[in-house]
Amino acid sequence: MSLKENLEKVEEQIHAACKAAGRSRHEIEMMAVSKTYPAETILEAEKLGLQLFGENRVQEFAGKAPELEPCRCTGPMAATDEPIFVHLIGHLQSNKAVRAVELFDSVDSLDSVKLAERLNDAAGKLHKRLPVLIEVKLSPEESKDGLEPESAEAAALLERLPDLEHLHMRGLMTIAPFGVPEAETRACFRALREWRDRWAAAHAQLKFDVLSMGMSGDFALAILEGATRVRIGTALFGKRALWTGPAE
């Protein structure tokens, strides 16, 4: 199937999930996860109206960024009236914070005080206010990244963020465990929503508007449990190639 056909199918599924949840389609952002796909694929998606993209690796996206620059410009010299926005959704090492701030419109995988401080310093030097999401680990899988919600590090990060004036806290992100029963997937998404509600009540100075949860295989369940953003890759672009570059 073509990208256009895949997009139409995904949209039908999102609308169906919204109807089942009693929610408006306008409540849900769809992020096209373009990791491992070339810039040409992103440009094709942009022509179909997609504006929000997710990438996993700093080095990989750095190779695509020059070709996408005309679609990302804003201001009087903008080449487009509807620019695309590219978020980092993969794990970020603190030593790559400066480059990440240069390349991305948001970092959706914040998971430590150290990284937050590095991002804040880098954003300040570039005169940016960088949106961020905290990645929360709600799966027992060791391969999953993110903060344990009851950890001291999570508590410290939430206390520190209001003082980091170059970061704009927007919400939370999680990845559900793979290959588990539907009830367990829904429980993971429900837990993120509950942590959002708890933290929003305790930290009124921070924003928790975004709940980024749900991918190609489970986004309908995420919508039922309150997702405001779903991250769709394979269902849009097809089976992805493996990353052959260096590990990050």
Structure description:
The chain is α/β, with parallel strands linked by helices and 248 residues long. The protein has a single domain, classed as TIM Barrel (Alpha-Beta Barrel), CATH 3.20.20. It has nine helices and eight strands. The chain has an eight-stranded parallel β-sheet. The two termini are 32 Å apart.
The succession of helices and strands, N to C, reads HEHEHEHEHEHEHEHEH
**Mean of the pLDDT scores?**
93
Binned, the helix content reads 40-55%
Q: Please state how the strands of the largest beta sheet are arranged side by side.
A: 7-6-5-4-3-2-1-8
Give the percentage of residues in beta strands.
Answer: 15-25%
Figure out the total of helices. 9
CATH topology description: TIM Barrel
Number of folding domains? 1
Question: Helices, strands, pairings?
Answer:
Elements: H1 3-21, E1 29-33, H2 39-47, E2 52-55, H3 58-72, E3 85-88, H4 97-103, E4 106-110, H5 113-125, E5 130-135, H6 152-160, E6 167-173, H7 182-202, E7 210-212, H8 219-224, E8 229-232, H9 234-237
Parallel strand pairs: 1-2, 1-8, 2-3, 3-4, 4-5, 5-6, 6-7
Helix pairs in contact: 2-3, 4-5
